[in-house]
Amino acid sequence: MSFRRKFPKMIFTDDAWLLSERNKITYGDIENYLVDSFSGLDGAYWWSIGDHEVYHYETRIGERFGSGYEQFNENLESFVHKQTPGVVQNITNNLNSLIDEYGGPLNAISEICRNNQIPFYPRIRMNSHYPIDFDHVGHGDFRRQHPEWLIGKPGEEIPKDTLEYGIRTGKDYAVPEVRSYMLDIICETFEQFEVDGVELDFCRHPAFFRLGEEKANSKLITDLVHQVKTRLNKREKELGRSLNLAVRVPPTVKDSVRIGLDIDDWIRSDLVNIVSAGIGFIPFDTPVRDFVDQAKNRECAIYGCLEGSAYADPLVLRGAANWWLNNGATGIYLYNFFTMSAQWHHQTYSELTADIGLPTSDKKYVLGKSSQPGPDSTIGWAFYHASPMTQLPMNISHETADLMIEIADDFDDPEVKNQVDSAALGIWFENLETDTEVKLEINGVSTGEMYYKNSQNGWENITVESLWWIKYPANLNTNIQEGHLFLSGEIKHFLSNGVNRISLTLDKVGNHLTMASIVGVELKIIYNKK
Prior knowledge:
By secondary structure, the protein is α/β, with parallel strands linked by helices. It folds into 2 domains: 10-361, TIM Barrel (Alpha-Beta Barrel), CATH 3.20.20; 391-527, Sandwich (Jelly Rolls). The protein is 28% helix and 24% strand. The chain has helices spanning 18-21, 27-38, 87-102, 105-115, 141-145, 163-166, 176-191, 214-239, 253-258, 263-268, 288-294, 314-326, 342-352, 379-386, 414-419, and strands at 10-14, 43-48, 50-51, 54-55, 63-64, 120-125, 197-201, 244-249, 274-277, 301-307, 331-335, 363-366, 394-396, 400-407, 420-430, 437-442, 445-453, 461-464, 476-479, 484-487, 498-507, 516-527. Strands 12, 13, 14, 15, 16, 17, 20, 21 and 22 form a 9-stranded antiparallel sheet that branches. It has an 8-stranded parallel beta barrel with strand order 1-2-6-7-8-9-10-11, surrounded by 5 helices. Strands 3-4-5 form a 3-stranded mixed sheet, with no helix packed on it. α2 (27-38) packs across α4 (105-115), α2 (27-38) packs parallel to α13 and α7 packs parallel to α8 (214-239). It is globular.
């Protein structure tokens, strides 16, 4: 028996912020948030069940957050919890009270979503590399009792400032007990609860094997995904309706495969119904088209991921959405926007799913920047491990530099180009003196000299505010980007749909060119409002 599958235009993810936000929440509090934010939209709500094998739902298999603790030491290191005193007690209190009064948060959320026609998926973090003190409640007994099941083995000396050190605390999926445990947790969320599917989030956090063992062990994770899909299909038949298996994977097919996630095989074998591409930090270096090509003639929808702590500028969100949708994506996956207001959710949904309005809306295209994590980083190394090298930062050892930037706006259509009010390029340099002459060519045609802009007004980076996960509604922060900003003049007549070559020539006044780096590139396109 086959079931008709429906895919949302937008996926709204949530890291269960309500459990942290105050000491006592009710069914009504959850209902108000869900209905106000997501009801009436062609979207889906995906809720994280926990982290580090410590869960904030009514699991009968895993460890419940706060279980067995009479008091908590909030001075212990924990990436999220230590920054927000009081949340450990809040999570524990809310989990217990929701279980006592409503059966638990997963029961409550699934019921509210069903009653309001909001597709609901539990989200499973497939690994976690957060720095959490061994004795912290968030560390969990799974890793305390079985350090031999982790990537870094007991007694192993791993030098800091290395990838091996950064990922050492994550679960090792080469271990059969790890895969068996995760299979049980994953399947509990759809076998014991009324949901519309389940997400395996392989971007939290993306390292699953010891380095050098990824290729040989990739079949182990493929087998795990196959077992999940088999049991999901069985549950489908029991319920008489479709249940989708969703995954989130690194920004490219190549990088997914490199770290042991054979996403191309999963798509071709019909193991997955939804693929969300990317961690969200480099949206314009996330080639959704490659995933779309893999999913051709398959019942598999592709989404591009946007990360609120990296980009929340409406122009950037529109630019990424327009590019991905133009390349065949089904929709957009929003990560770390969950405490934005209900009005923001509705407005953003309206803008990013507007088939007619989006192509000719104001937008920015932004080149991503690769950066090596600090010596003590953990999640930074995991993200670095799963991400492609980008064009930036680009060290300029000669007087010329070439960059590529791809746009989805149809500048080859004269009618579209006539609707454009302005198009300008902003480039940020480090170690470049402000009196340097920067000459610009686009697609082999000279556009003139760029000029240094002392103020970054209109070119700031906008993100969600810090500690957004306990602030509702969260605000947006405007941040000054590092480096000296140089701007082009009007360039709309030089741009083309697709890939554009940006060529720079640097002529230092007095012929004393110093080593410089390009650390930021943005293309801003503004349309007439007539």
